[in-house]
Amino acid sequence: AQTVTQSQPEMSVQEAETVTLSCTYDTSESDYYLFWYKQPPSRQMILVIRQEAYKQQNATENRFSVNFQKAAKSFSLKISDSQLGDAAMYFCAYRILVTSGTYKYIFGTGTRLKVLA
Amino acid sequence: DVKVTQSSRYLVKRTGEKVFLECVQDMDHENMFWYRQDPGLGLRLIYFSYDVKMKEKGDIPEGYSVSREKKERFSLILESASTNQTSMYLCASSLFWAGEGKLFFGSGTQLSVL
Q: Which chain A residues are within 8 Å of B50, Cβ to Cβ?
């Protein structure tokens, strides 16, 4: 079964500190994309960062970076210098090829991040 | 600016009613998706479509159907709404050849079935 597991339902971080959100996944594919999406109270999903599985270098986007461990099927998100605006639900996801030749996206259960002033 | 628009932000329906959730995208995307979001369960794929009149079941299609008569519009249909279908519904779209794979989301419809 293709699954995404986020084992931390909720995390808290002090403003300006660093926090890491964990994600593991299960796939038999060799090439795939991984994503972190953020959902603030507005409900609008925002792409935070993405990683292609064949690239060994970890992706970074400003204060956001990932630790991608392909063999362990682990894809954690590190947020540095946390800001109040980072408070949101974070979803890990991956994209897989389907029989029609296109892709579908499998999401995890989410981690709610609280940022403390 | 790219847009995925869901027709209603909040919807209240009665048990047994037929419910239509509408989604429109203006990016000429081939793929469109319907997810439901529940606390502790994350986003679960209901149905997706990769072309007009083409559809594939997701992980939880029971109790739902979909319609895609035009490329820009993807409708989710609850034939006979039940209380366990109370949820947040999210529509999304992407290119068929998804490249770097960005998924574009609407802002969700919170459906309450009473």
A: 100-102
